Amino acid sequence: MRPAEELRYLILAAQREGNRLLAQALRPLGVTPSQAEVVRVLQQHGPLTLNGLGDLLVCESGNSPSRLVDRMVTAGLVSRDVAAHDRRHVELTLTEEGDRLGRRIVEIEEELYATIDGASAGRDVGEVLGFLRTFVAGLPAGQAVARRAESFTRDPA
Question: Who contacts 11 (Cβ-Cβ below 8 Å, separation ≥6)?
Fold first, then answer.
């Protein structure tokens, strides 16, 4: 197997296994990894329009997250609010239940990050991050990650 092929499959395997672990941990909360990502993005960046949310999602990059958001509105996790200044402008925010769920999701994510930190201890993660940033630069999912990272460097709160 040539190195580029092995790298491709290792990235795919890491993504699948990471998502499987996350899904397993989220299952008792009744949410999927994609729904958890919506909650966390709204928690960190909300209120957002549907397009604004879509610009920050990796799970739905390049697609409109409308069906995903519809399910979350029905579940009582997300609220759609029409702006007073323009009825066409709809903002998405977390409900109280969505915010409570977000705090639980943070705990689960921190456990996953601790596992990743343990597996990467003593390794130059900066080199890997640099490669991956370059690899996905300009692509929809890479742009979503870059926008999220940029917002944290501007506003670390």
Answer: 132
For residue 55, give the amino acid letter. Answer: D
Does this model's pTM top 0.85?
Answer: yes
CA distances from 117 to 10, 36, 46, 110 (A): 18, 21, 28, 10
Specify the 3-state DSSP secondary structure of 90. Answer: strand
In sequence order, which ranges of the chain are alpha helices (DSSP H)? 3-26, 33-45, 50-56, 66-74, 96-120, 125-136, 140-154
CA–CA gap between residue 103 and residue 36 (Å, rounded): 11
Question: What's the one-letter identity of residue 12?
Answer: L
d(CA 152, CA 53): 16
Angle 40-45-35 (CA atoms, 0-180°, nearest 5)?
25
Q: Is the pLDDT of residue 63 over 90?
A: no
